[in-house]
Write a structure and sequence with these properties.
Strand order of the largest sheet: 1-2-3-6-7
CATH architecture: Alpha-Beta Complex
Order of helices and strands: HHEEEEEEEHH
Bound molecules: zinc ion
Largest sheet: 5 strands, antiparallel
CATH superfamily: Peptide deformylase
Structural class: alpha+beta
Distance between the termini: 51 Å
Number of strands: 7
Shape: globular
Strand content: 25-35%
Length: 198
């Protein structure tokens, strides 16, 4: 191949990758507005989703839109109240530490106190610019329905357990600033710009 032929092939490859990238961006859903602390929806107890509604196109679209919103905001978790939908739904995904894409509907959480607690730095997409040291249970048991309406029951530990506890709090109107107030002696405004956002 001549140098020009190689260049032409490379150009085609770059165009192909670019188109694939654009398709990947548009294949989920729309980006939604993330509401901020002070908005009343963040303080409400979110409502259970009717099982029959899980398969509805509207609800499935909300899930896709939340995945897009979380990804575009650079978050590792997002709860429906954060996009002004007072529903018991959250999504989570992190590449490092790895937490698989998980869609959680109507969760029940049991805190496994015997494994103790651990503190880590958390940010919240609804509280821009604040990173707080928060104590969470190391291990929880969670049961919920996934987006197909299948019942899941499992234990979570590590980063997945932290995100799930943060998002579960959102469903009950609890924000990380409340947890800091409850544990005043452990307040620490760490100022980490790269704390995980949830
Ligand atoms: Zn949050």
């Amino acid at each position: 191949m001549t140098r020009y032929a190689i260049l032409a092939v490379m150009k085609n490859k770059i165009a192909f990758v670019f188109i694939a990238f654009c398709l990947a961006l548009t294949s989920y859903g729309a980006s939604l507005e993330i509401i901020k602390i002070g908005h009343p929806t963040l303080r409400a107890k979110a409502e259970e989703i009717n099982f029959a509604d899980i398969q509805s196109p509207e609800f499935q679209k909300l899930i896709d839109d939340m995945l897009t919103t979380m990804s575009e905001a650079g978050g590792v978790g997002l709860a429906a109240p954060q996009v002004n939908k007072s529903l018991r739904l959250f999504v989570m995904k992190s590449s490092w530490p790895n937490v698989p894409l998980t869609i959680v509907i109507n969760p029940k959480v049991e805190y496994l106190e015997e494994f103790g607690k651990k503190s880590s730095t958390e940010g919240c997409l609804s509280i821009p610019g604040k990173s707080l040291k928060i104590n969470r249970f190391k291990k929880i048991h969670i049961s919920y329905f996934d987006r197909k309406g299948e019942y899941i029951s499992k234990e979570l530990d590590g980063f997945g357990a932290i995100i799930a506890q943060h998002e579960y709090d959102h469903l009950n109107g609890i924000l990380i600033v409340d947890l800091v107030e409850q544990m005043f002696s452990q307040i620490n405004f760490t100022g980490h710009a790269n704390a995980p956002l949830m």
